[in-house]
Specification:
- This protein is an alpha+beta fold and 142 residues long.
- The chain has a single domain, classed as Aminopeptidase, CATH 3.40.630.30.
- It is 35% helix and 32% strand.
- It has a six-stranded mixed sheet with strand order 1-2-3-4-6-5.
- It is globular, with a radius of gyration of 16 Å.
- The chain starts with a helix and ends with a helix.
- Bound molecules: coenzyme A.
- Coenzyme A binds next to strand 3, helix 2 and helix 3.
Length: 142
């Protein structure tokens, strides 16, 4: 963000996403201070697949903020939307984003496939996923 106008526009997209049921963005706070953002991108409501996105503010990086936020968002998303058909959450990152790959690993998103480069992304990427587990599957995995 370069100025308040861009920030206001970005915020309006988040509110529009909540209203449309396509994008659920959360501020990540540490003792009241903004340290990051985490978002569930749902595209068309009712589809089986959603995607998670995130960033951590520069000074707060390296403290496990993003993995904990992604874990919390994932639990909330399945608790809220599994009944409406949500079965899988993807986490996509560019192949050279090692920090993001670590976030995926720490929050239990298994690497599923290498995604070939496509514009505007010049490098191959990773798709990690977490799947919804029903009650019996969840107990068996514990
Ligand atoms: C990727 C990102 C969200 C990680 O968030 P985080 O809250 O720092 O996550 P973690 O504390 O678990 O650190 C993850 C990795 O970042 C790296 N890291 C550690 N300290 C760091 C620091 N001070 N600055 C930058 N990266 C650091 C390490 O590789 C770490 O992995 P490790 O725990 O195995 O050492 C954050 O770097 C970021 O916002 N990057 C820019 C936006 C982005 O890439 N978003 C994801 C798009 S797919």
């Amino acid at each position: 963000m370069d100025d308040a106008g861009q920030a206001a526009y970005w915020l309006s997209l988040q509110y529009d996403g909540w209203a449309a049921g396509t994008r659920y963005a959360f501020a990540v706070l540490d003792a009241g201070e903004l340290v990051g953002n985490v978002v569930l991108k749902r595209g068309t409501p009712g589809v089986e697949r959603a995607e998670v996105g995130y960033w951590t503010a520069g000074p707060a990086r390296g403290r496990g903020v993003a993995p904990r936020a992604v874990e919390a968002l994932t639990a909330w998303a399945f608790a809220t939307f599994a009944e409406g058909g949500l079965r899988r959450i993807d986490l996509l990152h560019e192949g050279d984003n090692h920090a993001s790959c670590r976030v995926a690993e720490k929050s239990g998103f298994a690497l599923e496939e290498i995604v070939p480069a496509f514009p505007p992304y010049p490098l191959d990427g990773h798709r990690h996923s977490r799947k919804w587990l029903d009650g019996a599957e969840r107990r068996a995995s514990q």
